[in-house]
Amino acid sequence: MTMIGWFQIILFCVVIVALTKPLGWYMTRVFGGERTFLSPLLRPIEAGIYRISGVDERREQHWLTYTIAVLLFHVGGFLVIYGVMRLQAALPFNPVGQGAVAEDLSFNTAMSFITNTNWQNYGGESTLSYLTQMVGLTHQNFLSAATGIALAMALIRGFSRASVRTVGNFWVDVTRCTLYVLLPICVVYTLFLVWQGMPQTLGDYVEATTLEGAKQTIAVGPVASQVAIKMLGTNGGGFFNANAAHPFENPTALSNFVQMLSIFTLGAALTNVFGRMVGNQRQGWAILSVMGVLFLAGVAVTYWAEANGTSTLQALGLTGGNMEGKEVRFGIVASSLFAVITTAASCGAVNAMHDSFTALGGMIPLINIELGEIIVGGVGAGMYGMLLFVILAIFVAGLMVGRTPEYVGKKIEAREVKMAMLAILVLPLMILGWTAVAVVYPAAVASMANAGPHGFTEVLYAYTSAAGNNGSAFAGLTGNTFFYNLTLASAMFVGRFFMIVPAMAIAGSLAAKKSIPPSLGTFPTTGGLFIGLVVGVILIIGGLTFFPALALGPIVEHLAMNAGNLF
Amino acid sequence: MFREIRPAIVLLLVLTAITGLAYPLAMTAIAEALFPVQAQGSLIGKDGKVVGSALIGQEFKDDKYFHGRPSATSAPDPSESTKTVPAPYNAANSGGSNLGPTSKALADRLKEDVDKLKAENPNADVPVDLVTTSASGLDPNISPEAAQFQVPRVAKARNLPEEAVKQLVAANTEGRLLGLLGEPRVNVLALNLALDRAAAK
Questions:
Q1: Where are the domains of chain A?
Q2: Are residues A359 and B101 in contact, defined by beta-carbon separation less than 8 angstroms?
Q3: Angle at which helices A381-401 and A482-512 pack, to 10 degrees?
Q4: Alpha-carbon span A104 to A125, nearest angstrom
Q5: ipTM of the complex
Q6: Which residues lie below 8 Å from residue A81, measured CB to CB, with a gap of 6+?
Q7: What is the pTM of this model?
Q8: How far is B161 from chain A (nearest CA, A)?
Q9: Of B159, B147, B160, B158, which is closest to residue B121 (Cα–Cα)?
Q10: Chain A to chain B Cβ contacts (< 8 Å)
Q11: Where are the alpha helices (DSSP H) in A441-555?
Q12: pLDDT for A431
């Protein structure tokens, strides 16, 4: 580890914190339906969209209607992606002549993109036409992100409102999020990325003759416009197979830094939105602090482990850390930092191959996802995931002192705690359940690229990533098989919707409750004690659930590596 | 519920048209106008032919060129389409080796490469990036140490004084952005083009 490495990490944190407040202010206005500086330009478009789609923007929805709207929207999105992938050979914008994508791969990819997972069983440049990248993937990058933020807004409204039956209007939330938040940032961001060297063209792949006279086919395409929303919306599905490690998908140290910022920035700002809407910004800062503590701990471990290298490298006298599967322009620190960020949020873009990380360095991304991606988390999803843990922590605190727990003026009762537990328990069921099936099913075992405990970790990581809707991978695993395409899709489905429905049920039940003013006996939720309690609850639940599986994978691999065992 | 069906369909189509077509196509037009070189892939021409992209690494095996990092990219096997064969720096199918820290295959490969490089230049430590594969398999860069390591071989193959080659390396070394972001690096293709120009003089 170096000083300059830590400076890069600190600079990142400082910029994120600095962006949180202004962006939180802006987003609060957008979702409150107030005027912003973009209104003169966008308001006519917005009104036009409502008119042709028959949306009455003043009519709010009950939580159940809101949830049904979310589900209908997902079904539609699924059909669009699946259809475009199956038909891409006959559709325009296909200069390379990519054929139709297979049924199971199309199914997996469609599920993957509507759930904001963006798991890559497809190899972008070798499978997909430009139309699929744009209409199939870019569009769903926007919509799954907008949906996540809309859901978080609904849950936040549950906390901030009192004695009402509605939590907002999904169609309005999605439209406003897309038009006022995602699109404007992406337009500027795309141009920045092209300036840094990212291609943005509809032309055919380029045939080059190298200096030594060999032929090199260079894949290009409308990359920048997709990467902008891929990062901002914590989607993470790459244009290219190597994702953000590909020089065209992440050309410079600066593009890398801005990409890392854009993964976290909306998620972090939502904590501020929460604070503003419940009437005390310190409530938001307390939640961001919980995230910050867990984040920095993860960064420290991964950076240390990767800088240390592996015993194989050390035995050969190779210093400078574990550079297998990393790019020179990013080096150890920016690769480690990116890995922790992308898994803390539910992004899943990678700028280095997680499969080649050291055992402990690769364990942190795994843990980040298993904790529920609540460290900033996916846009929206991280916020509602974190609020579920807060509900549990408040419940535990209430048990300790024997009072009915309350949070930001709302009593937390049996219904909320049950729903929070349901959402939290779904994750281990999918992750551990499917991993257990895969490691005894011979065809699934054959997909492992590495032998020994590392192969087990590849499978564990795959289901963790799918259920957590992350999308990063220990990419050695051959995931594009019938078994994995279907089981991973099921993990993504359950991981998304069994979080959404309970979270919305909580939103509805909270919105209907009266708001009670804080009294002397109220547990203060803006201080260090609260932050420590939430961190503790997250680590205990995550630890109890996943430690045995981690012991069989990365932990035993680390011990084996130190003992000089190779597989 | 039924009154949510119309918005579900119409809104989806409208937003698909905006974000899936209007946005990428408009960005393509603007990007090609403002940054035509980058938008096309930062291609480098020489004598009217495209020799590569400034951002994409290519394979160098000749002693008179600086070599890039090992690449783990592959291509479909021409004789059997379900299998793949190694194809270093295949810029139409990016990817890494995905070998883990306790992989025997990785340990064997590293040892073989380190031995080869030690034989080539016994006077310097082998830089780690010169024996490890990159994440994309298309890394255009090597570390300045990895370039210095190859100076004796390149100088000998081209009958140039080592000092002159070292100067070229120094001239093609990029530092951290603002002294802070990223890592010092050398673009291998740019360095080799500079080398060819120097030799032509």
A1: 383-562
A2: yes
A3: 60
A4: 19
A5: 0.95
A6: A106, A109, A110, A113, A114, A136, A137, A140
A7: 0.95
A8: 22
A9: B147
A10: 383
A11: 442-445, 453-467, 482-512, 528-550
A12: 95
